[in-house]
Amino acid sequence: MALLRLAGRRLALAVPGLLGVIVVTFLLNRALPGDPAAFFAGPAATRQAIEEIRARLGLDKSVPEQFVYYVRDLARGDLGTSLTTGQPVLRDLATRLPASLELTLAGLALAVTVALPLGVLSATRPGSWVDHLARVVTTAGVSLPIFFTGLLLVYVFYFLLGWAPAPLGRLDAFSTAPRQVTGFFVVDAVLAHDGALAWAALRQLALPAVTLGLFAMAPIARMTRASMLGVLGSEFIRTARAAGLAPRTVLVTYALRNALLPVITLLGMVFSFLLGANVLVEKVFAWPGVGSYALEALIASDYAPVQGFVLLMATLYVFLNLTIDIVYGLVDPRVRIEA
Amino acid sequence: MSALLRHGRYVLGENPVTAVAFGLFVVLILLALVGPSLAPHDPLASDTARKLEPPSARYWFGTDQVGRDILSRVLVATRLDLAISLSAVTLSFVVGSGLGASAGFFGGWTDRIVTRVTDTIMAFPLFVLAMAIVAALGNTLANIVYATAIINLPFYARMARAEVNVRREAGFVEAARLSGNGSARILTVHVFPNCLPPMMVQASLNLGWAILNAAGLSFIGLGVRPPTPEWGIMVAEGAAFIVSGEWWIALFPGLALMLAVFCFNLLGDGLRDLIDPRRRT
After folding, report:
1. Which end of chain B is more exposed for a tag (fewer CB within 10 A), N or C?
2. Residue A242: CB atoms within 10 Å
């Protein structure tokens, strides 16, 4: 019950964030270079045709009026039409979002499964080889440009070793996509009992996911280590040890649970970086997600998809922060009591 | 001052990595200053007869798809990459700390507006926001700087706000007020200089991130236009040749980028040890 109240309050707090996002995307929309009416009308259009289109797009109205129209269109789920694909932007984004989510979540999952144990181990054995390894990984992780890591991995694992498939999208040319259930190819192929297809999809996913994972691993491992070190030095851990609790209980139940709190907060920031990094990784691996969609549109001066993409990313991020707050409440009962 | 120097020597002796980072930093600055005159070839001169040559005695880093010397291009690009990130970080440092310090000092409406603005910026995934800003304002180099500055602004604003806030009620502030100093003078002359050390650490750590961001933007085709030598765009040009095994086109600019970021990160850590030994990890 307290958790529900917490969720409700956080949801209310997310509203101004979303509003800010909508205002900023609208302002960016207004600041775009060129005359959209002239652009839509094409080069051969007469002055009168351009004026008509301007009126139809609502560009002859005042700025506040345009904002009202903009919000109204958003409420209807109308993000405009892409000039390059000729499809409504919302539909384009919806078909491409699963690819991006699959990649981002795989990267994040990989990062967490490696970084948490690495951080804990290096905190419990400071100065050991695990600690040094953690330090190297974290420093390299924050220093390596993500597009460069991706290219290095492609060179080593595709060109030199031949273990990975060509970095060209979610499936090789010989496979067809599984029937869509979740939109995640690996999961869908497993659900369709097609082992070979699941393996093919997994092979395509591996390198981009590792690229993203390496990038996200650094801050998580670093924060886990610092936070674990702080908690392990505190008095209640000394008491728990003195009381003769099993080392495992002390480490996991007492120390880790407390040390996780700042790590969970950090995950929001990491996700923000991941959503941005996703664009770069999608470009390197020709991954057909929303990021490469926005990039193609950006290069073709097709702005409706770019705005749709920015809005989608920001909305995703606001809701993600909401989820993180709720998870925080699950881990830390004090937050629930305050609510 | 001599105590700080002694402490600095102690930190450098204790942590040779910081000394290496500092050396690297000096090299980078020198390269940015004199890089163009060190370049053995013209970074823009193409020679299609010598395209895609692997590293050799004549072309240490090899040549790219139109036969330009990669070593020269990497050297010349140092100035542009450092200039972009330095100006972006300076801009967000000045504007962000100004806004944050006034928010922390005056509170009230100033605080509310500044907090709301920074929160709105932070509501976006930052790289995506930078992309959107460049797309909206126009695809120019100046806009890359502005976009990078805007997405870094919240970090400085929040930090300055917090640092000023804890000192607002300090004894020395009251003493300054009693001796007849105005609010603006207290903030700029008495409070703000005390907040500078942690802010400088932040700036140093931020510099690496700013370089990565600007290079990321030019990697996806925003900002710098070919044939201008810049690390991000050079990696992008080399990306197409990685799958056919021509590794040197992307590797060397990528390594330069990595080295610069690595240097700034280590330097930031070292600076933090120097200023606040308690926060060593």
Report:
1. N
2. 8
> What ipTM was assigned to the predicted interfaces of this complex?
0.82
Number of A/B CB contacts below 8 angstroms equals: 152
Give chain A's domains with CATH numbers: 1-84+300-339 (no CATH), 96-285 (1.10.3720.10)
Q: From the candidates B220, B225, B251, which should be mutated to test the interface with A, based on the most A CB atoms within 10 A? A: B220
Q: Do A145 and B212 touch (CB under 8 A)?
A: yes
Q: Per 3-state DSSP, what percentage of chain B is helix, strand, and coil (rounded to 5)? A: 80, 0, 20
Residues of B in contact with A274 (CB under 8 A): 125
Note every long-range contact of B211-214, with CB atoms under 8 Å and residues 24 or more positions apart, other chains counting.
B211/B81, B211/B82, B211/B84, B211/B85, B211/B257, B211/B260, B211/B261, B211/B264, B212/A145, B212/B257, B212/B261, B213/B126, B213/B127, B213/B130, B213/B148, B213/B151, B214/B81, B214/B84, B214/B85, B214/B88, B214/B144, B214/B145, B214/B148
User: Of A99-108, A176-185, A289-298, B82-91, where does mean pLDDT reach its minimum?
Assistant: A176-185
CA A294 remoteness from chain centre: 15
Report the predicted TM-score, pTM, of the whole model to 2 decimal places: 0.84
Q: Look at residues B177, B163, B170, B174 and name the one whose alpha carbon lies nearest to residue B104.
A: B163
Distance CA B85, CA B90 (A): 8
Q: What is the pLDDT of residues A193-241, one digit of tens each?
A: 777 788 888 888 889 999 999 888 888 988 888 888 888 888 888 888 8
Which residues does chain A have within 8 Å of residue B251's beta carbon, measured at their own beta carbons? 152
Query: Cβ-count burial of A47 within 10 angstroms (0-12 exposed, 13-18 middle, 19+ buried)?
Result: exposed
Catalogue all structural domains in chain B, each as residue range(s) with its CATH number: 2-279 (1.10.3720.10)
**Are the C-beta atoms of A292 and A282 separated by less than 8 Å?**
yes
Look up residue A183 and give its two tokens: 């939109």
Of the partner residues B132, B136, B235, the one whose CB lies closest to the CB of residue A148: B235
Query: For residues B8 and A228, what is the distance between their CA atoms, to the nearest angstrom?
Result: 29
Q: What is the pLDDT of residues A275-310, one digit of tens each?
A: 888 999 998 888 888 988 988 888 777 778 888 898
Kindly report the number of other CB atoms within 10 A of residue B207's CB atom.
25
SS3 B251: helix
A322 half-sphere exposure, CB direction, 13 A CA radius: 19
Residue of A nearest to B281 (CA): A226
B220, B242, B261: residue with CB nearest A159: B242
Contact check, Cβ <8 Å, A295/B221: yes
Q: How far apart are CA A91 and CA A77, in angstroms?
A: 10
Question: Mutate which of A136, A157, A280, A287 to disrupt the B interface (most B C-beta within 10 Å)?
Answer: A280
